[in-house]
Amino acid sequence: PTAAQAQLDMEVENAAHYCQAIAQKLSREGLEVKATVERGDVLEKIKEFVRNRNVDCIAVGTHGRAGAQAFWEESLAAKLINSLDVSFLLANANK
Hints:
Strand content: 5-15%
Number of helices: 4
Radius of gyration: 15 Å
Largest sheet: 2 strands, parallel
Distance between the termini: 36 Å
Structural class: alpha+beta
Strand order of the largest sheet: 1-2
Number of strands: 2
Helix content: 40-55%
């Protein structure tokens, strides 16, 4: 359990550094950016984040699946779009 906890802590730290670097780059370009890393169910964490803050747009990487394929592959982007009333910026995650 201690090794697993240490591994998770390292992953969170690495993700936070990665997100901060992207946020700083976007901030230098004049955008207002908030980068956050949390643990838990991704869909629920994002929905909670949106509900608790004044979020008006969410950028999501997607593989471009739609319809039944997205449903069966449990597309996060599709679930978010169907459960939140905000704007979305979808980016190709394959590039």
